[in-house]
C-alpha cells in the first residue's frame, strides 16, 4: 500500500518534473499545488496515479467518462490555468465543470469565494464530499448547466471553464467585472489553445492564447460548424 511519504514524494516529483519544466514557475502556483492533496480528489485505488500526466476518469465506465469529459484534466493544464489567472485574495470565482472538486480547491486557496457548477449528479456529490473532507470551506458546488454562467451571482472577477469549448459564449463574458479574467480551452481537436480573456471595458476585451493543448468538451456549449463554405 502506498504510504503518505510516497505520495508526498510523488507530488514533489510532479511539480519538479512536469510543472516547473513546462514554464510554470510562479511561486504562488507552486505553493498551491504543494498544499492541495491531489490524491484525495482521485477516485482510484492507486493514488499515485494522481500525479501522472494523464486524464483520470471520475465515473464508470471509464471510456465513457473520458469521452464525455467526466474526468480530471492533466496536472499541467490545471497549473497553467492557475498561473495565467493570477488570482487575488479578494477574487470571486465561477468555475464551470466541478468534476472531482480539485480545481475548485486550487482556486479556493488563492480566491475569496468559488462557486463551481456541475451537471452530472454523481460528480456534484463527489466534489462536495471531496471538498468537505479536504476542509475547503469557501467553495459552493451547485448542480447547474454552466453554459450560460450564473447571471444571478454576477459579476465575477474570474471565470474558469474546466474543459474545452468551440467558442466562449458572450453570455459568460458579460458576467465578468471590468478587469476580470476568463480562462478557457478553445478550439477543435487536434488544435486547441489555452485562452485568457480579460474584460477591459463595458464592451471591450483582450485575448491571449499562450499555450496549446487538448481537452474534452464541456457539455451543452454551442458547437458552431467547423468549416464554412
UniProtKB/TrEMBL annotation:
Key words, A-Z: Methyltransferase, Transferase
Entry protein name: Protein-L-isoaspartate O-methyltransferase
Family membership noted in the UniProt record: Belongs to the methyltransferase superfamily. L-isoaspartyl/D-aspartyl protein methyltransferase family.
GO biological process, alphabetically ordered: methylation
CDD domains documented for this protein: AdoMet_MTases (cd02440)
PANTHER family the record matches: PROTEIN-L-ISOASPARTATE O-METHYLTRANSFERASE (PTHR11579)
A GO cellular component annotation in the UniProt record: cytoplasm
Record GO terms (molecular function): protein-L-isoaspartate (D-aspartate) O-methyltransferase activity
